[in-house]
Amino acid sequence: MAIAREAEPVSSLREIREAGLDREDLFGIYRSMLLTRGVEERGHILYRQGKIPGSFYTGRGNEAGSVGVATAMGPDDVGCPLHRDMGVHITRGVEPWRIFAQYMGREDGPTRGRDGNVHMADSQLGLLAMVSHLPAMLPVAVGCALAFRIREEKRVALGWFGEGASARGDTHEGMNFAGVRRLPVVFICDNNQWAYSTPTHLEYGCETLADRAQAYGFEGVVVDGTDVLAVYREARRAIEKAREGGGPTLIESMTLRMEGHAVHDDAFYVPKELFEEWAKRDPIERFRTWLRANAEMTDEEEDEIGAGVKRTLNQSMEKADASPLPDPSTVTERVYASVEDLDTPHHK
Ligand SMILES: Cc1ncc(C[n+]2csc(CCOP(=O)(O)OP(=O)(O)O)c2C)c(N)n1
Ligand SMILES: [Mg+2]
Question: Looking at the domain covering 5-323, what would its CATH class be?
């Protein structure tokens, strides 16, 4: 028997209204999920065209997890999204053309052509760029939460990590410290069942990773990461609890990594049946069906959202392609943040 609570699916429009979302918000979530997938699909095309230097990582299958959590964040909250969390950047408002520019190493990408394609974030939007995935950003999120506590700000930090990263020491150190101090931090485990080619039974011996939360003195929740509304509801509950002084929560979001670790990996080691099974639970198709059944989304509304996303993607790719490569003579500039860079609403 798992110790952690298993989140129920969201059943009705009324329930999600009570959790703070109106019909327009729901359409916005759908749009963000389509944009997230669209950006990554277009990225694949750019990669095949030889326009992306280095490798290329995506979070296909994690659109509900990433968009659902980011929708629940407050404007002053901060987060450290990883390579599976494109939906966080999109939901916080990073413009897709800047993401394409980032992919192609151009001057207008968030890191101005100075780092890998998913090592990016816009600090103006309360996001911190990942340093490494395993899981260097968890202690950073905990540090942000400690700063909020010291400054008596009602803000919450969010730290993402993979289930593979849960085996590393910094996960333990971050969670232990957060539990001891009851810091305003929410840990999101994107459990996509694989750490590169390692399956979960070789990663951890407990039933669910959320079970570990109890040992750190806080709550653990397992949520279906293909159900955007359930993810949103659980993230919102955890974030508001943290904001009110109730301490951390560990949310384990269950998905399947629907592609290889990155483009160089064809995931031959993942059983075909597993892909087939999870393809039936595609998060976007699932939410589309829910919107049709529960929010009366019409054909016209659906087409309008879809067409708008396509238009945005086309225009964004063009705009990004017009962005120059960085001038080599500036290579040492903007590697470290300046005082001006840190003068954002998120560095008060
Ligand atoms: C210390 C260290 N070891 C190995 C790697 C290479 N690496 C990056 S991500 C990854 C797998 C991570 O798996 P998981 O935490 O489950 O995240 P996922 O990629 O599945 O989202 C590995 C082995 C690394 N970046 N850093
Ligand atoms: Mg994983």
Answer: alpha beta
